[in-house]
Amino acid sequence: MEEVNAIVSSFVSREISFRFNSICLNGWMDGSLVS
User: Where are the domains of the chain?
Assistant: First the structure.
């Protein structure tokens, strides 16, 4: 059960950071295109 927990938490944190980076990158690109 510990192994499953570690796998799930690492997947979740990777997913969150990926989405966060996508949102930041999209916002930055939108901002630079608008400017």
Answer: 1-34
Q: How confident is the model at residue 16 (pLDDT cuts 50, 70, 90)?
A: very high
- Rounded to an integer, what distance in angstroms lies between the CA atom of residue 28 and that of residue 22? 10
**Residue 30's Cα: distance from chain center in Å?**
18
Tell me phi and psi for residue 3, to 5 degrees.
-65, -45
Rounded-to-integer distance, Cα 13 and Cα 8, Å? 9
Evaluated on CA atoms 20, 22, 25, 30, the torsion sign reads: negative
Query: Does the reported pTM lie above 0.70?
Result: no
